[in-house]
Fold:
Amino acid sequence: MGVLVDRNTRVIVQGITGHQGSFHAGQMMKFGTKVVAGISPGKSGTKFQDTVPIVDSVADAMSFSPDATMISVPAPFVKDAAFEAIDQRIKLIYILTEHVPFHDSMDLISEARNRGLTVIGPNGPGITVPFECKIGIMPNQIFKEGDVAVASRSGTLTYEIVESLTRSGMGQSAVIGLGGDPVVGMNYIDVLKLFEADPKTKKIVLVGEIGGNNEELAARYIKEHIKKKVVAYITGRSAPPGKRMGHAGAIIEKGVGTAESKIKAFNEAGVKVADYPTDVPGLLK
Amino acid sequence: MNLYEYMGKDIFRKNGLPVPEGYVVEKQSDLKEYRKPVVVKSQILLGGRGKSGGIKFAKSGEELKSAVNELIGSKVRGLAVTKVLVEEMLNIQHEYYVSITLSREHRAPILIASSSGGVEIESVPQKEIFTRVIDPLIGYSDYIGREASKFMNLKPEIASQFRSILRSLYKTFTEEDCELVEINPLVETKEGKLIAADAKVIIDNDALYRHKEFSITDPEKTPLELEAQAKGYSFIELDGKIGVIANGAGLTMATLDALTLHNGKPRNFLDLGGTDNVEIVANAFDLVLKADPKAILINIFGGVTKADTVAKGIVEAKKRFNISKPIVVRLSGFNEDEGRKILSENKIETYPTMMEAVERVVKVAGGA
Structure:
């Protein structure tokens, strides 16, 4: 088993007929992901790309024995879509959608955790184990198989770092986008546990940004529990306090969540912090 | 979205929280007959109003008129006052603090309360502050109120009122999609009643679609930021001289950081998002040009965004806005060769990596 997903993971897509959902479901299939069904209420009986059956509900998709779902529906419908998946006990729920009200996220994450199910996101680019399974919108062409695991709160910045790893000959064992919102299902500590336990992963990259104290908590956890080599990159050093830098979660409030504090915490935990995204491969050597 | 005090109090009233009797005044003719001593409070979205002269007391009809006269049209902490809240004066016995906000770490609401209210909570010693994470699946229940009352040493008759306030405050927090509900001070009157003397309410911007009754222009946003917001761009003005357009919030922040580390100062943050639309790219230039930078840096990592589409947008913008300022482009990812070809045919400088582009733009912008 790879980190959370592998070549046998059976994936359904909630919102497969949408603009985003259909493009990315296609890309996922090209990557090798087993997309077993798509959900689009009222469109059952049709097929996606002539191969993937479309059904009306997650309940109807259960005959395809899904292990994971990708939710790509508009923000106002995310809570309902996630509850639908939780109700059917889908083990892994990845939410791509941006701008989900955080009260909805709180509710659905608590319900999932209560049942031992995993939620990642909202507002993340997906999870990829090259070249076994990709759920989400990460570009197929940047990956290489290898032993570096990456966890990040951002999208394009992750691609930048993954690509620079690939160019340096360093492949990846898993790349997980945690999401850029203040409330997300999985944080660094959750993925650090998975990376530490994963036999394929030898080194770990954490990509953080300003806002909240998740990086600081991760640094403390690494110091006590992680034996594998960890390198970090933190963005938002130049961000002024009180301004949301694009992500709802990326804001410095009352001095909490500054890049300095995060970099200091990582340094104290013996984790090297890269100045530029492209410095990450060098620090991993 | 930060709400004005009077709006917060309307929400409190709707949810059963005790607030002082009062009304909003925009002009003298809104004033009602004077009956008892009142407080006249400027409605601005910043704290510290009392210290900066934004709150006045009136013990007669004349004093009320002159307080309204002085405050409306004045500036308090640099913000124009267009409305005041006229409220009954409370006989204060004691001031408490209470708020509910989000604990990111716990992905759950957190209750914060203290018997030392009426001052900034940051200045209250930690040992005097009660904090309690609330399980969203359970919500508020009276055992939480009992824990808080015990910690705060509340008398039984105050504790029972406090529990009912917490219940209503939690309801407000969840039903109105709040990031923060804060009462500071929560006043115990000489008559033994708890009343919310102030109201600070912040609504989650992502939930505004279900709270259309609130519409406030953020006073901290610049006119250009408001224009960008209306056009759907994530845009922030900064004080440097290099215009920036990038895609993705994280990569845009990383671009600003890289410029800063190279002694170049960014003029703005502009996240293009994932787009395959030439117009969205071209219109982004319109915004950045209005900020009058010395040079413009484009940093695109095309994953979902196609590099050739971005290139076409840049060429289109250069023609449409007749741009003579230096443009430095980093294009990488999906269809990058086609994108770079389009740019070089139009004599626009491109670099394959972010670092090369950053170094170049700092140079053409004339250093810091």
Notes: The mean pLDDT of chain A is 95. Residues 19-31 of chain A form the longest helix (13 residues). Chain A touches chain B through 64 residues (CB under 8 Å).
